[in-house]
Amino acid sequence: MNVNGFHGGYGGEGSKTVLPAAGMVKLDFRLVPDQDPERVVALLRAHLDAQGFGDIEIVELESHQHPARSDLAHPFVQTAVRVAQEVHGQAPILNPSSGGSGPMYPFMRHVGAPVVALGIGNVGGGCTRRTRIFCGGISRMGFGLRRRFWGRWGMGLLNPFSV
């Protein structure tokens, strides 16, 4: 569970010592495979009720995104690993789960292919003004990685739908 922010009462200049009439917390949940988004919301509701917070309203701001994770042993994924090692000269860091979300589940479920994110950044992140020359080099290498990876796929050497 991520807590995105809290709000309640007066937030402007000066002080106001009045108790706020309402408060708000914004949450999101990063699900793992086999978790159902609707069930997670129901469990949150049940937990709040059990703690005596039945008056708290849950407002769902966006549609649910089902979790998904590609099989790291899949040939499509392994080709990405090999190409990354060729381009960067070292084994890549594999993150089976991401801190962000995207349309992996519908793609994997309806298209039937694994998903691979070929990152461009450095592992520490933080491409700031001081590191822009280094990060520029990383970006060029990242684009080269993608070009080589998709070149293999386009030549028929790689089929993401194979098992």
Automatic annotation (TrEMBL):
InterPro entries: Cyt/Met_Dipeptidase, Peptidase_M20_dimer
Matches recorded under Pfam families: M20_dimer (PF07687)
Domain Peptidase M20 dimerisation: 1-51
Signal sequence range: none
Keywords: Hydrolase, Metal-binding, Protease
SUPFAM superfamilies: Zn-dependent exopeptidases
Protein name: Peptidase dimerization domain-containing protein
